[in-house]
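One-letter codes give the sequence; the integers encode the fold. A sample entry reads:
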Amino acid sequence: MFNEKTIDAFLNFLLAAVPLAFALYGVYKNQYLLTKKALEQEKTLEKQGLK
């Protein structure tokens, strides 16, 4: 069932998918405007002229 080509293809998939997953997680964590608290803070900073 598993031959050298299928194993190589699976390893290539993993070698591409794992860094992609880390990158997407980093982008998600840096989108601080996703939470309600962050949106309120953003509005407060704009009112104070700090942003």
Notes: The chain has a mean pLDDT of 88.
